[in-house]
Amino acid sequence: MGRRHPLATAALKAGAAGAAYLLVVRPRLLRWGATDAEVGADFPGRDIVPGGARAATMATTIDAPPARVWPWLAQMGTDRGGWYSWDRLDNFGRRSTSRLHPEWQAVEVGDRFAAKPDGSQWWEVAALEPERFLALRMSLDLRGRPFDPAGERPARFTDSTWSFQLTELPGQRTRLVVSGYWSLRPRWLQPLMSVLVLEPSHWVMQTRQFANLKRRVEGRSPGAVTPSGLS
After folding, report:
1. Which pLDDT score, from 0 to 100, does residue 168 have?
2. Would you state the torsion angle of the CA atoms of residues 185, 186, 192, 198, taken in this order, to the nearest 10 degrees?
3. Which member of 135, 168, 212, 214 has the lowest number of beta carbons within 10 Å of its beta carbon?
4. Model confidence pLDDT, tens digit, residues 106-164
5. What one-character DSSP code corresponds to residue 106?
6. In which element (H, E) is residue 74 found?
7. What would the pLDDT profile of 45-74 be if each residue is shown by its tens digit?
8. CB neighbours of 21 closer than 8 A, spacing ≥ 6?
9. Stated pTM of the model
C-alpha cells in the first residue's frame, strides 16, 4: 500500500476531529450541568422571539437562596456591574463588580443593560419575575445595529434571548438554569453560526459566569459584599 498524501492524512484527521466534536463534545456543551428534566422541560420566554429555536440549556447550583442570587443578576450590564465572566472578552476590560449596588437593583421590563460602553448595543429586559426569572433580549441587524423587535424585522438579523431561571432548593440553595431562544436570518446561516461560533463561545462565557456568580453569592470572592437590606 502506497503512502497516503499528507493532505489526505490531514483531511482525515480533521474529519475525525470534527466528528468527535459533533458526536461527543457538542452534546455536552449544549447541556452543561443540566439534568435530563431541565433540558426536556419547557423553558419560559418561548413567545418572546418569534420563530426562535431553543438554545443551549446550562445549569448550576448555588449555595444561597434566590433572594441572594437575584441582586447580582439585576445589576448586570457593561455600564453597571458587568457580566461576571471573562471581562477582557465581554466587558471591554472593565472588571465586574464584587459587591452589590443598591442603586442598580430596581429593574423593570424595557430597561436596557448596556452591552458596549458607548451604549450602541444592549440587552433589553424582556420579561422578569423577581427572584424567579429574568429574560434579556438583543435584536440586531447583521451590521450590528439594534432594531425595534416590535416593528418590522430587517431582512437579515439576529434576535435572541439570554434567560435566567431561579428555583429554590432545600437547604437554602438555588438551582440556576440558563437558556433562551434564537432566530437568525438568513435561515441557512443559523445552524452554521450556532455550531461554529455561538455554542462554543457561549459555553466558555457561561461556565465562567457560573463560577464567578457562585463565588460572589456564596461570599467566597475577595471583596464580595452584600449590603444590608439586600441579603
Report:
1. 98
2. -20
3. 168
4. 999 999 999 999 999 999 999 999 999 999 999 999 999 999 999 999 999 999 999 99
5. -
6. helix 66-74
7. 999 999 999 999 999 999 999 999 999 999
8. none
9. 0.88
Which residue from 135, 132, 164 is spatially nearest to 67, judged by alpha carbons? 132
Q: What does the buried/exposed string (b/e) look like for 92-103 if buried means 16 or more CB atoms within 10 Å of the residue's CB?
A: eeeebbbebeee
Residue 87 has pLDDT above 60, yes or no: yes
CA 23 from chain centre, in angstroms, equals: 23
Report residue 26 as a C-alpha cell: 457538542
AA identity, residue 161? T
Place of cell 482525515: 12
Cα separation, 102 vs 46, whole angstroms: 31
- Cα end-to-end distance, the chain, whole Å: 72
35-217 CATH, one of 3.90.1170.30, 3.30.530.20, 3.30.70.100, 3.40.50.2000: 3.30.530.20
In 4-65, the DSSP E strands lie at: 53-54, 58-62
Partner residues linked to 137 by β-bridges: 124, 161
